[in-house]
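User: Predict the complex.
Assistant: Input components as received:
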Amino acid sequence: MPKDGGIGASTLRREDIRFLTGKGRYTADINLRGQAFACFLRSEVAHGRIRSIDTSAAEEMPGVLAVMTGEDFTEVGGNPTGWLVQSRDGATMKEPKRPVLAHGKVRHVGDAYALVVAETYEQAKDACEAIEADIEELPAIVDMAAAVADTTNRVHDECDDNVVFDWGWIEENRAAVDAAFETAPHVTTLELVNNRLSPNAMEPRASIGDFDSGTGDYKLYTTSQNPHLTRLLISAFVMGIPENKLTVIAPDVGGGFGSKIYHYGEEAAVLAASKRLDRPVKWVCDRSEAFLSDAHGRDHVTKIQLATDMEGNFLAVRTETLANMGAYLSNFATCTPTFLHGTLMAGPYKTPHVYVNVKAVMTNTVPVDAYRGAGRPEATYSLERVIDKAADELGIDPWEIRRKNFIDPDQFPYTTPVGLVYDTGNYHATMDKLRELSDVAGFEARATESAAKGKLRGFGLSTWIEACGIAPSNLVGVLGCRVGLYDAATIRVNATGNISVLVGAHSHGQGHETVFAQLIAEKLGVDAKSVEIVHGDTSKIPFGMGTYGSRSLAVCGSAMMKAADKIIDKGKKIAAHMLEAAEGDIEFNDGSFSVAGTDRQKSFAEIAFSAYVPHNYPLETLEPGLEETAFYDPANFTYPAGAYGCEVEVDPETGGVDIVRFTCADDFGNVINPMIVAGQVHGGVAQGIGQALLEGVVYNEDGQLLTGSYMDYAMPRADDVPNFTVDHSCVTPCTHNPLGAKGCGEAGAIGTPPAVVNAVIDALHRAGHRHITHIDMPLTPSRVWTAMHG
Amino acid sequence: MHDFELVKPASVAEAVAALGAEGAQALSGGQTLLPSMKQRLAAPERLVSLGDIAEMKGVCLGDRGLAVGGATPHAVVAREAKAHYPALAWLAGEIGDPSVRARGTIGGSLANNDPAACYPAAALGSGATIVTDRREIAADAFFQGLFTTALEEGEIITSVHFPIPEKAAYMKFAQPASRFALVGVFVAKFADGVRVAITGAGEDGVFRWTEAEAALGADFRPEAVEGLALSAGGMLGDMHGAPAYRANLVKVLTRRAVAAA
Ligand SMILES: Cc1cc2nc3c(=O)[nH]c(=O)nc-3n(C[C@H](O)[C@H](O)[C@H](O)COP(=O)(O)OP(=O)(O)OC[C@H]3O[C@@H](n4cnc5c(N)ncnc54)[C@H](O)[C@@H]3O)c2cc1C
């Protein structure tokens, strides 16, 4: 039995009390004295040359305080890309400039090219409509293949072929992979699209810039997953504000899914406007703007090939991908289709030869960046789809073909041909668990029941693995990352024994305030209620790289463990003095420092008190106080993995797909709060179902966004998803972090799409539609019906 | 949203007078009008709210069938029409979500005549009469194309009279994002014939599928429409479904509606 509030307990989320009673404090809830409101004017054309912008009428409008355009930001730097990727030929990628406000050209519908600040939001909006812009419309570059083919029409002049890089992973292995294909007894080829998604966090972005002319300090309240990174980007690249003069506060944030990792131009713009006006300037994005300006996700067009022998042993995998970057390079756009995608293309399999080629393409669309799973869903989808196709071609059971190719439990640590070293795992165990929970034996009976209702039942299987806990800084540095990817935590034990933990990871739905308190409670043997988790404010937190890539527990949690070890070490010194024993004889157990083999002990609270009221204290050798900071840089990625099973019913008359069973067997390493882990999986699976069946950003050929609202962009709703069976009882603890934890935040979004699509294809095959080998996501009723009848 | 004046008349006569002003527009549940104002696609200077007009609210059975007040919310129809006209009540109960049904009204829906809306199928499929402040309009003459009706400037739908069929059913296949009707089919069997009204599918909005009406008039069984060929010509096509797909849905849903009626 886990201790109440400690590791392994399904403690209820303490943050939910404020979220569910309307007491959350989001950026839009913050109102500063004297604040003015900003509104951005956004391009209505996908591609155009700005001939002139006449702001004079707008400036005369009631309440208008300032009108700014790209001209006002020519002095400040651009928003950089966080990762420089090298092309196959060794050339460094192109890095087209991303200004705060569009300058010279507008490059996508929604590209902001002017800003109005007024006394009220409505006045700012009215004035935006009075700005006269003369924009010469240019042909829109929407389709990636066309962007690559026609290099006379360019999104950026600096990127002369619309291709940012042409990446080969691992280029030196290419010849060997090609050779393996030449001699392979069987090759399965699949061309597929990983659909573009709009993140749709429940809280739209919002930012308040607050410049204090008295001190010269800037404050930015913003919807961010990583306030320190935003501060770093604004300081070092965009505006040159010294870091010690800029505070970034990300208060309660209502979901991010990746889209709030990045620094956006609106943040710099409200800071600049606040300085100009000497007043706080607030901007709150509306939902329509969010569709046009939040970084989108996915958008790959891929050809994948799998070479096997006739028994289904994998011999080689080869992929060619066009990855859409959109109109500008968002901060991590370049690493998502490369180091978060290509490096996962071995999956949980011992395929000896793997080669991945990715071309990153600029188009006149909203920038694309990491979105829940980031690259790993794309890799998993390609691989798990082609495996099902190969199994079908070879007449091998989908379970069997996977099983025979799994890396076996005794092969760890396992070096993949795409550059990762999996430290531990047991893929057979999770698949066995899935098989047990899926009631495979009962499938035929369920299929018969479905048939009686006129429905086609199918089962789809998928396995997944991801590299999370991003990442060893030295490794990512070699690969072109411009930042370190450690995290940090400070444990501040107060004089009365309660504890503030200041953490670099940011919580925007994950429940860190609960889980991190459980960790500290367990480690220091204190009541979880006496532990407070502080995050999201650069003026309070030592440093941090934020929350994404399922890294918070594995990386920031590990930093907390390191800091807690330092607290215990110091506590032992204090206890040794107080108990008049040798430091080496002091043991720390369950909140109490004791002399080994005796009943002499001091409680954690007594030690804390003594540290701050050091009357009986080794002052000659030890500083008072009990506060420790640790930075943790992981030695490797963590490799959670699992197996998912999906059962669908297809209505052959309408093409409608109903998911009737969904089962997940995951290995997340050690689990701190099973309830929260289950919740993360539920959310991820719902998002994966969204991608598989419902969601998809659609542009027309002029670059107009056709899915610009919920009227046309289908988000999954409660009745679109079944009851899930989730299991995480298969545990192979991570070998290199102190918690043995691996990360669970993205799993559902990674493992789900191929399971769903495999299930639909299976249903169609069972019904005799054997010619259907693939349907691109989202598998809407009309697409499924058209595949069957079209 | 631009500024506007809000008027809250207590009677139809007052409402008609208030609507006489330049730039005035009727506001009922606001489920269509307010979002378009927020997006600045509509900017009426004066909104005349119909929500306080008692004579425009409620459901009652009379000698001309079921009368539904023009400002009656969908939720009320779903509840109160159930005993008299279950297919109509069911249709109302499937519109939008609870908050949309609590606010949105039949008058607003018919006046708006969205090609994917549900009520137009019920009105046309039932052969309803739309009663306004100044006249009565047969459903067959009311719907005149996408977002276009026979209503004149400032004319208010005060009630709708639904003849009650022997049997009826509405089948809705929801567009995955909006959950309006990708295709909706309303089938009603009266003593003197069958009416089949299709929403969501037609390029010109709601329409009657007369071939199906004839076939079902002769033989009211799902199989009766089996042999009918419905052309994709004249069907709407968009990212949610090509014309051929919609044509298929019309047939499938008609069969299902007949089976359910
Ligand atoms: C999220 C959502 C989901 C929805 N789903 C569906 C659905 O599944 N199926 C469906 O059919 N509809 C759906 N709707 C639309 C809904 O039914 C609305 O109620 C309807 O479209 C408009 O009715 P209203 O009373 O809100 O009209 P309003 O928005 O107030 O007005 C709409 C228009 O009609 C005019 N008008 C209003 N009342 C009258 C009157 N009595 N006489 C003359 N003119 C009048 C107004 O001037 C305006 O031009 C949905 C709406 C939303 C927001």
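The first strand of chain A starts at residue 36 and ends at 42.
Let me know if you want any component modeled separately.
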